[in-house]
Amino acid sequence: MKKRFSVLVSVLLVCAMVLSFASAGDAADSSADQGHYVFQPKACSVFMKEVFGDAMVETWENLVDAVLAGENTFACPDKHTYDWVMGQFPKHCLPILPELIDYAYDRSHAVKNGVASFTWLVSPEEAAARIADFGEQVEEILNAALRDDDSDFEKAAALYNYFCRHYTYDWELYEETREKYVESSPMHLFRTGTGICSEIAPAYSLLLTQAGVKATTMQGPDHEWSYVRIGGREYHIDPTFVLNSEESLEYFMMTDEQRAVTGFPGNVCFITSNYSRDNPHPNYTADDSTYSVLWNYSFETLLREENKLRCWQYTEGWEKSIFDFSYSE
Fold it and tell me: Which of 122, 150, 186, 188 is the most exposed place for a label (fewest CB within 10 A)?
């Protein structure tokens, strides 16, 4: 009897080990499909550098370093740089920052001898905690939507699909903006899952930037969308218009011509800066039509191992037609 019991225990232990190894293997396979992206609080798009210049980007990095260190001064060459960095960079780079700090009380004398100051709206300790919380949220989104070895195109497509599945348009806020000025921020989208274009596009571009993709936003009359540089070519992507649209690819990797067809010709648009006339920038051109075939389809799934984007459309008989688009960079 004891021998049988011993054999039974041995069998059970072996089974448990097999199940444990199998579970570990499944977990490893699952983990392999997840990204391991790390939040970068000073991340700044290359477009910001091209539009604003190296000095302003360096000043932005100085500002973030000061905030993370719990200080209230940072190196800044002059008031002109100070105003632009404080006013333009947070929305595109670290949108939680305006909730934590503000301009100096005496803004006209905020910069003295190459040193600028700002005021705290919360304690430095609370600011650090809230930045950390925001960073965790960014990491969760990136690591859920992306893989470590994703190409820039795959990152753009995966996040485009993520936005369609997870966010909705805030029609109530939109109606409010038609009656009065409303301060918009990507933080509203990240916190509530709903937003308007001036929150959706910066959030999408911010996530791309955090994932290493060259991205910014572009604005036209009463609208804002994303603009990316992938494979050395530039494209328009409108993550707002894809919401509630059965994951349509009509607004993905658009040319200037397609952007004009959808309502925003280039002569009425400007990039990154709300005051582009004060910051001349290169004439960006999106003229590569490689992805034009996608505009008549909707997103199905990414077949990463095959470098294919599976998409679909309805036929005249309302049957679902599948098309695999091959991509490479």
Answer: 122
Neighbour count for residue 249 (Cβ, 10 Å): 27
SS3 237: strand
Task: Centre a 10 Å sphere on the Cβ of residue 166 and count the other Cβ atoms it contains.
Answer: 13
Q: Hey, how many other C-beta atoms are within 10 angstroms of the C-beta on 296?
A: 12
For 263-303, the pLDDT digits (tens) are: 888 777 788 876 555 655 567 899 999 999 999 999 999 99
- From CA 285, how far away is CA 289, in angstroms rounded? 12
Task: Please tell me what DSSP assigns to residue 180.
Answer: S
Residues 81 and 110 in one domain: yes
Neighbours of 100 (CB within 10 A): 20
Cβ partners under 8 Å of residue 103, min gap 6:
86, 110, 118, 119
Could you tell me how many helices (H) and strands (E) the chain has, helices first?
A: 10, 13
Structure confidence by residue, pLDDT tens digits, 87-112: 999 999 999 999 999 999 999 999 99
Containing structural domain, residue 63: 46-127
Specify if 24 maps to a domain. no
